[in-house]
Each structure stands twice: as structure tokens, then as C-alpha cells.
Amino acid sequence: MNRTEFMDLLRYYFRRVSEAELAEILSDYEAHFEEGKKAGLSEEEICRELGSPKAVYEMYVHEGMIHEKDPCQCRGEALSAHAERLAGHAEKLAGQAGRAAAVTLDRAQRAWDETAPRLPGTLGTASDVLIRLLFWACYAAGFLVFVLTLFAVYLLSGVLFPGLSAVTLVFLTGTGVFAALALVFTGMELQKYYRSRKTTPPSSGTPERASAEAETADEEDGPQTYEAELVSEEETAPTAALVPAPAGRK
To answer: Can you give the residue ranges of every domain in the chain?
Structure first.
């Protein structure tokens, strides 16, 4: 057995003593090895003189020179240390998660700032496309309903139910034609709305902002309009006589 193995075994057997007592015991046996080395002894010879680490431990216990901790207390301390390490790791992970969340929020804010100005135009284009699809769909559905109505009346009157009354056929025809016309009229209204959207210039924003801009425009045009009115009045006013009036006749 060499010095390293002897000291490791001492640490194992005295594992339940306090840190201060363990350090003192290890320091004493380190000093024994240093003194034996100075005396010219090898590590094996010093280990034989000191005895086995287990015998040293039993001697300390028998003499009452050490105070061992209760195994439950040792396990509790080990669990506490483990819990502290886990808490440290959890705190570290929480910090990393917070930094990652901050970076993600910053990127999301920048993406929103870049996208927000383009949203009104995108939404307007999408609504225009949707309106066009709707009124063309209404036209197509109206034509389809009209054709299907005529075909159904033809089948019911001459093929499937030859004896069907004329009132019933007229009612079915009128219902189908009315439904087709309703779809066509709906498509026409949607098309008018779409054309009005295309011809109406875009508003400046909210009603408050539009009214404010209108007032600003009136204020800017006011002096110019007033000056123009003055000029027009001067041009249309009767010119005063520059020649003195002749003396009165007797």
C-alpha cells in the first residue's frame, strides 16, 4: 500500500466525521508520512508502521476521539447539497430562458414593425380579391340555378311526372327563377361596391384626422382666397373719374 491509497482509505473510513475533524486527521497522517520520508523509510514501510486505515478508524472510534454524524443526517446533508446544486442549475437555466425570451420578443417586435406598415395595403388587396370572387360566384350560381330549374321542370313535366299540374310547375319555375335572379342581383350589388372602392380615393385615416386635415387645408387656402376676392373686386369696381368735373353751367 502506498501513501495515496492509505490517505484515500482514511477519507473513506472517516467520511461521517465533520470536515474540520477529517482535515485534522488527514493533516496528522500527512505529517507522519513526511517524517518517515525524512527518516529514509519508504511509503510501504510507513504504512505498515501506521497500521491499516480501518484499524486507525476503529482506534479513533474506541477512544472517542471523533464524533460521527448520523447516517440519516449524512443523507440529509447530501440531499441538501444536491438540492442546492439543482437550484443553481435551475437558476442558470432560468437566466438563459429569460435571455432567450428577451431576444425572441425583440425579434418579434422588429418583425411586427416591418410588417405593420404593409398590413393595410395587403388587407385591402385581399378584400378586393374576395369581393371579386363573391360577385363572380353569385353570377355563376344564379346561372346554374336557372339552368337547373329549367331542366328540373322539363323532367318533372314530361318524363318523371307527366300528370303534374301546371300550377305546381309554374310554382317550381317561379321559385327557381326568383332564386337565380336574387343571386344575380346580389352579384351586381357586389360588383357596384367593388367599382366604388376602386374609384373612391383612399381616406387619410380616421375621421378625426380627415377633419383635421380639411381644417388645415381651409386655413391654408383662406388667405389666398381672400386675396383673390380682393383682386377680383378691384378689377370689377367702377373706375373713379380722374378728370375734374367741369364748372357748373348757368
So the answer is: 3-68, 73-113, 121-202
Provide the pLDDT for residue 207. 47
Model pLDDT for residues 87-139, shown as the tens digit of each residue:
777 778 888 887 887 888 788 778 777 776 766 667 767 777 888 888 889 88
Pair 136, 187: CB distance under 8 Å: yes
Q: What is the pLDDT of residue 211?
A: 54
Which residues are CB-neighbours of 180 under 8 A, at least 6 positions away?
Answer: 142, 143, 145, 146, 149
The grid cell for 139 is: 353570377
